[in-house]
């Protein structure tokens, strides 16, 4: 059965939610009375379609269908998840929730993107408070995994668990905020930092550029992977966290008393900030800045993915749930790879680095290994295949965002030997590269060649026999 | 002439400075009266030697020599840079500065790692205030580029410029803080965030783990590359920064009035935080956490390096200054590559990914291209070489942190053709892989094969002729 998400309010945040659902295979109904809504959604979707597929080393599910609806009623009927992202006015939100609840399925989750209101405030006067829960995302919603999931005592465990499950299935990280509080958790930090930033600018200490440099060349790099307390734990050394606090806590307290006042947002201060921001970033359009941000985020997230840590571990876990089935048809060449080229695979000239052709063929060989039964459990049992040599022909260039697929042939599969031939194709069917690869079966203990397990060898021989009946893909070059 | 840095105080921060200088080829004199100092420095150096070389795609300069000194006098004599990292007590720092100035060269820069004191406070009562300047680093000092460079009015432009030049030559980013202020810039943000964190824990809203998750899965990822204001500029959309502030500024102001108080660091609160931190990270030793942090930082920094943006652009600029000269000896195989394997090149099993052998050989071909004159200017003029095919033999595995080098032969260099043969060796001289690579000279305009420029062809033919006299590295397999 198709899963339907209803998006109520299609600004930057609502649009980000919409993209997250759509690109994860959900159908999406959008309601937004703004006549500009289609144009705005198109812009967010273009960014998301560029960015999100690059996070993964497998293809995302086929995109769902997007429907623009004329009313809340039309949007929410049949929806499993309803996400409210209308302006931050409590009276407006109450009106929207009442309308939603009049037409929504009784077991639908109604998430609110509010950054400030507590769920109990949102639930006030509702006939079904249990359905309404805060699910506060972070921009860009299609890339950043954090969702602050804030229930009130009126929410049941059932709805909380359901919300967690769905968010996780979208590759997000639902952080269960156990006590409701104004501005939840993350925005309290953002407010504190924002206030300090205003003071520094107002007092002429630093410009927006200098503040951003102080963040991105320093603690921003720490926080992208460990956060605050684990970082400080390390600073405390072997003597532990209590030592850190007693040593540095009082230091940190010194200037506090001077930082308590809130700077008034005068026209003058706003103009000062706007001018500094223009000087810093005004040479780039918002669209360019969005792309720069997204490419950076993908690169960072993919680097953490390779380390299987922090936000990268979340992506790996999500990827496991969307990995395609192993090939089941062998009589033709096997489609081993079907994926998007990520931006961290490209060179300064925008083309895919030569070496990544080799990586794609090496990944294709992994799929062949799994297909014949030499899977993770097999490797854990101490047996595997090692690549002995590969010969790659480069026929056409490709670039970030391109979809490519690989057809693989087992040219030889007997005893310890497995010889593969891979063809990499572009979206339009252009043959972009070929790779002929020799693998030898080894014992991981002795590091020496040995015969595969019997079932693996049988599978290998069967497919090799089938492929021997196809025309040799190397043409006359055997 | 050897450059000497004196490190006064060898804790985590002083040790990080020491490693930065040493690994950038400076000789380092350390003075620290702590009898444990040698052991502590060894631990920091081990981490730094593991981490810093991986940031770069060329080898760092040969390490300088490290000397443990018995006195400040012995340490500072002849030093170009003197870094003070003693405990945060103003009287102690004054005493140390006086002793330094008694023995230091009059044009040495005396940087202070203080996180709280203003330079004018440090300079009080000094006979040479101009020499003393704040150069506040961030842990781990050997990886994070930010240095807050804070002068007082007593500092001359000469000393400020000299400090900037030296810090930049170490791969750091000196952020010139134009007005001195308690806690400089970055630590004011850290204080604000720390205070909010204490409240959230004290009030039972969130644990250390939950706070860290709120940071590293959300805004931490934004801040690692853009900082605060550029991120918000994007949120403001085409309507600009003033629009963002008028829309979101007041929102952000709402809860402020509740966040003004400073939580008292009672024993109870300290214990609460320490216990939560143990639950979060206690299963890992500090050493393991340091390695995890460093590997994550390297991976993130290298991902930004590949995008040539944010902190990655700094590394690329620094790398240009330490790039080795092009080879000048041709009669033997040319040593094209000499580098460390970074951790983002390894698979889950810790071995270098197959495809990276191809990358190393492709990088080797780049050096050969430059050596024959097909350099960046040549490519900008519309001519280049494209790889047509490569055949790689995998002979041995390698892993992150290993030093490898490549010897390259020009097997054929005539007309449009350049055929190369590369041998990749491990530190112990083991042959780990070979690659035979065919490149064709092309016009980047027509994308078709064409003859190289005459001087390039002449160089190519000359080296190919010299290499034809060496024994064929492929053995009998030609």
Structure explained in plain terms:
The structure is a homodimer of 478-residue chains. By secondary structure, chain A is of the alpha/beta class. Helix content of chain A is 44%, strand content 19%. Chain A contains 16 helices and 13 strands. Chain A has helices spanning 12-23, 37-55, 72-76, 90-103, 119-123, 157-169, 186-202, 208-223, 229-236, 241-253, 267-281, 286-307, 310-322, 354-371, 376-380, 454-467, and strands at 4-8, 27-31, 66-69, 81-84, 109-112, 132-137, 146-150, 173-176, 334-340, 383-394, 403-414, 417-425, 431-443. In chain A, strands 3-2-1-4-5-6-7-8 form an 8-stranded mixed β-sheet, sandwiched between helices. In chain A, helix 12 (286-307) packs across helix 13 (310-322). The model of chain A has no long low-confidence stretch (mean pLDDT 91). The interface between A and B is large, with 135 and 136 residues.
Primary descriptors:
5-stranded antiparallel sheet; globular; 478 residues; 44% helix; alpha/beta; 8-stranded mixed sheet; homodimer
Helix content of chain A: 40-55%
Largest sheet of chain A: 8 strands, mixed
- DSSP E strands of chain A, number: 13
Into which percentage range does the β-strand content of chain A fall? 15-25%
Oligomerization state of this entry? homodimer
Strand neighbour order, sheet with most strands of chain A: 3-2-1-4-5-6-7-8
Q: Report, as a whole number of angstroms, the end-to-end distance of chain A.
A: 49 Å
């Amino acid at each position: 059965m198709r899963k339907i998400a209803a998006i109520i309010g299609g600004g930057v945040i609502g649009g980000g939610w919409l993209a997250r659902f759509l690109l994860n295979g959900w159908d999406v109904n959008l309601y937004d009375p703004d006549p500009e809504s289609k144009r705005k959604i198109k812009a967010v979707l273009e960014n998301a379609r560029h960015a999100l597929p690059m996070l993964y080393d497998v293809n995302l599910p086929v995109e769902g269908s997007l429907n623009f609806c004329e009313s809340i009623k039309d949007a929410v009927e049949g929806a499993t998840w309803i996400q409210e992202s209308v302006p931050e006015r409590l009276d407006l939100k109450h009106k929207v929730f009442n309308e939603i609840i009049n037409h929504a399925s009784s077991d639908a989750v109604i998430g609110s993107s509010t950054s400030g209101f507590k769920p109990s405030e949102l639930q006030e006067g509702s006939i079904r408070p249990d359905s309404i829960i805060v699910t506060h995302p972070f921009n860009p919603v299609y890339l950043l995994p954090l969702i602050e999931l804030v229930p009130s005592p009126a929410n049941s465990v059932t709805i909380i668990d359901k919300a967690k499950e769905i968010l996780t299935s979208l590759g997000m990280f639902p952080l269960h905020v156990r006590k409701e509080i104004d501005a939840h958790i993350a925005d309290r930090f953002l407010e504190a930092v924002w206030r300090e930033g205003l003071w520094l600018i107002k007092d002429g200490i630093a410009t927006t550029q200098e503040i951003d440099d102080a963040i991105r060349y320093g603690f921003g790099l720490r926080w992208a992977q460990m956060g605050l307390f684990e970082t400080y734990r390390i600073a405390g050394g072997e003597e532990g966290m209590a030592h850190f606090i007693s040593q540095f806590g009082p230091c940190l307290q010194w200037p506090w008393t001077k930082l308590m006042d809130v700077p008034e947002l005068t026209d003058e201060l706003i103009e000062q900030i706007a001018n500094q921001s223009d000087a810093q970033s005004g040479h780039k359009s918002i669209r360019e800045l969005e792309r720069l941000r997204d490419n950076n985020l993908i690169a960072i997230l993919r680097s953490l993915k390779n380390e299987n840590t922090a936000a990268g571990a979340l992506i790996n876990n999500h990827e496991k749930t969307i990995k395609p089935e192993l090939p089941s048809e062998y009589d033709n060449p096997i489609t081993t790879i079907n994926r998007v080229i990520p931006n961290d695979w490209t060179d300064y000239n925008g083309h895919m680095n030569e070496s990544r052709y080799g990586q794609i063929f090496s990944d294709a060989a992994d799929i062949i290994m799994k297909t014949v039964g030499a899977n993770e459990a097999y490797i854990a049992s101490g047996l595997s295949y090692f690549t002995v040599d590969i010969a790659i022909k480069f026929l056409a260039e490709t670039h970030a965002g391109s979809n490519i697929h690989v057809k693989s042939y087992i040219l030889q599969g007997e005893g310890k030997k497995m010889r593969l031939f891979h063809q990499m194709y572009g979206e339009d069917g252009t043959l972009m590269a070929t790779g002929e690869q020799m693998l030898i079966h080894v014992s991981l203990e002795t590091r020496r060649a040995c015969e595969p397990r019997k079932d693996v060898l049988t599978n290998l021989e069967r497919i090799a026999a089938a492929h021997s009946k196809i025309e040799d893909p190397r043409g006359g070059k055997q």
